[in-house]
């Protein structure tokens, strides 16, 4: 190879990343994660089961409704630019899927989603697996007494019981210590919003956990 051809090849290879950045979409979602204890719906169907052959009826129905890709993308149930305006972006009935078509299976109103048993009023540490960590505020809600899991989840079904800013992270897992709400029994849903800190990003993540008190 002549010196001139070698120089031209080097110049071409150096330009490839620039060319790719011009034609490929760049995702704004760099903070990813989901609850592993108790498992979120995406974590449950992805890791505790298998999206290709789910063992629970609820995960099978979720795959039938929205396909398997949602569970391979288990850690990005997100919206990029909500900046705290969650109710404006996510309609009633679509809270668990963040209003995104890909995650429509997470919104299924069923009373047989695999659920974790918790003790009402007890201290508990939520563990959230993070594939990328970022500063932010975590707000956690629980469904009100009288919640019917066979009815699509609405914003009015939720009451806040915890909020923490920048919880500690250990070995890639957020540790969110809280006292669980008192006066709860039976099947409920815990809903967490992880809002990244402005002005770093307006991105937010949404986590749904099925529990039995």
UniProtKB/TrEMBL annotation:
Signal sequence bounds:
1-22
Classification via InterPro entries: Cellulose/chitin-bd_N (IPR004302), GlcNAc_Chitin_IntDeg (IPR051024), Ig_E-set (IPR014756)
Alphabetized, the UniProt keywords read: Signal
Report the superkingdom from the record: Bacteria
SUPFAM superfamilies (UniProt xref): E set domains (SSF81296)
Chitin-binding type-4 domain residues are: 32-211
Give the protein's recorded name. Answer: Chitin-binding protein
């Amino acid at each position: 190879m002549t010196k001139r051809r070698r120089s031209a090849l080097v110049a071409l290879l150096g330009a490839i990343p620039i060319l790719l950045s011009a034609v490929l979409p760049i995702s704004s979602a760099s903070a990813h994660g989901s609850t592993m204890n108790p498992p979120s719906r995406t974590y449950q169907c992805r890791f505790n089961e298998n999206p290709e052959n789910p063992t629970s009826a609820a995960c099978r129905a979720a795959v039938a409704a929205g396909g398997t890709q949602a569970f391979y993308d288990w850690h990005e149930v997100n919206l990029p630019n909500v900046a705290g305006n969650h109710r404006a972006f996510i309609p009633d009935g679509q809270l668990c899927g963040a209003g995104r078509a890909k995650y429509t299976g997470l919104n299924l109103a069923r009373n047989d989603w695999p659920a974790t048993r918790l003790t009402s009023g007890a201290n508990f540490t939520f563990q959230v697996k993070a594939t990328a960590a970022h500063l932010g505020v975590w707000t956690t809600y629980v469904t009100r007494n009288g919640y019917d899991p066979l009815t699509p989840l609405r914003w009015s079904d939720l009451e806040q019981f915890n909020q923490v800013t920048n919880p500690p992270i250990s070995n890639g897992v957020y540790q969110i210590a809280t006292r669980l709400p008192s006066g709860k029994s039976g099947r409920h849903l815990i809903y967490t919003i992880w809002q990244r800190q402005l002005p770093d990003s307006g991105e937010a993540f949404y986590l749904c956990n099925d529990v039995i008190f």
